[in-house]
Amino acid sequence: MALAMDISTETRNLLADVHEWAVTHVRPRAREVDDNCAFPADTDEVLAVCPVRHSPLDFRYSGPGHTDDPEVLRKLEGGGDLLGLLVMEEMAYGDGWGWQALPGNNLGERAVRLLGSPEQIDKWADGTLRGEYKFTSICMTEEHCGSDLSQIRTNVARDGDQWVLNGQKRFISLGAISDYLVVFAQTDPGSGLAGIRAFIVDRNDPGLSVVKRAEDKMGTRWYPQAQLQFDNIRLDDDRRLPSDNFGEIMAIMNGTRPYCAAIGIGTARGALDYAWSWVKEHEKGYSSKRWDLLEDQVKEMRHGLDRVRNLVLRAGWRHDLGTADGTFAHVAKGHAVPVIEAVTFRAMQMMGPAGSSKEHLVEKWHRDVKFLDITEGTNQMHRIGVSRAYIGRMASKA
């Protein structure tokens, strides 16, 4: 991994340990997870030897979890988003399911921290750090709409001292296994974004049902996305997150979009290294001219991954300085995904017919990275976001 930055010896050692764990313990189970759309039976044993104790997505709040020593955390690039992005890439190098199985992959937790009251943050968000909750989910997407919250049809109505929630959500990551959900619903039908509010739904609340535990997807089958039904779920007012600031809602994604790119960089890097090792084992089948061309292409692809990594780490660095920057998040994911897709596809091509065989993992990784262009916003949406930042809101009208 080439970095246009200096990182500490402690960080490099931790990344080496994570890399070894991901290749030795996570990758050998990748095909099983892909076939079964579920974590392997010995997941707890795999996680027990992981060098960190929390998902990198949560390092900003939890740190890596293997130490509470502030001096050690300082040497680990502060133990925040920058470290999380570096570790996420190394985990994805082995395979994506490893980071996903760790505690702290909590978009729901982040939503509570950004939108909730101090009491809600203490109970629900800090509860994940105390080990009271393992997984949480954020419920935005519906059958007819994705990132456009103004189109949400799931509704919630006031009834005395309570709220009554009805509707359905689809493609909800970890929705079937999360301990609690942060559900975005419409309080005033027809009002668009002005009526959107977020509510906390506990796994055991009457009226919550799982319609489908996991979508049968092309890729990232280790990332189970559920379809959920809400039937007259009665919620006390302390389950309503008080903020109605749409910018704060989107700030959730500003912090997590760079992680989508980091996952893709690690996956693409793993696919390229795997394919290149396979090609070198079969070097005798190539002419010298073709071999020179392949070497040049591999160097170019590694350079492309280095460039997008620097954009991703820049977004993490900005977040560690204070607030997640929406433009940097758009740039990081929007520029990274086409490069990641191209590298992974070329890695599969380099292996010829073997690249598409289930005998190798490269075809799986190619399917996995395709998912990244959809999750947390498509590439077109990111380009609009960047254009608006530099040109103005009329950029999307062109």
Structural commentary:
The strands form 2 sheets. The protein has a 4-stranded mixed β-sheet, covered by helices on one side. The protein has a 4-stranded antiparallel β-sheet with strand order 2-3-7-6, with no helix packed on it. It is globular, with a radius of gyration of 21 Å. Helix 10 runs parallel beside helix 12. The chain has about 400 residues and is an alpha+beta fold. The chain is built from 14 helices and 8 strands. The two termini are about 40 Å apart. A hairpin with a 2-residue loop joins strand 2 (about 155-160) and strand 3 (about 160-175). It has 3 domains: about 10-105, Butyryl-Coa Dehydrogenase, subunit A, domain 1 (Orthogonal Bundle), CATH 1.10.540; about 130-240, Butyryl-CoA Dehydrogenase, subunit A, domain 2; about 245-395, Butyryl-CoA Dehydrogenase, subunit A, domain 3.
List the helices and strands and how they pair.
Blueprint: H1 9-26, H2 30-36, H3 43-48, H4 59-62, H5 70-75, H6 81-94, H7 97-101, H8 107-115, H9 118-129, E1 136-139, E2 155-159, E3 162-173, E4 180-186, E5 196-202, E6 208-212, E7 225-236, E8 240-241, H10 246-281, H11 288-321, H12 326-350, H13 362-371, H14 379-390
Parallel strand pairs: 1-4
Antiparallel strand pairs: 2-3, 3-7, 4-5, 5-8, 6-7
How many domains, as an integer? 3
Name of the level-1 CATH class of the largest domain: Mainly Alpha
Biggest beta sheet summary? 4 strands, mixed
What string, H for helix and E for strand, traces the elements in order?
HHHHHHHHHEEEEEEEEHHHHH
Under the CATH scheme, the architecture of the largest domain is Up-down Bundle
CATH domain topology of the largest domain: Butyryl-CoA Dehydrogenase, subunit A, domain 3
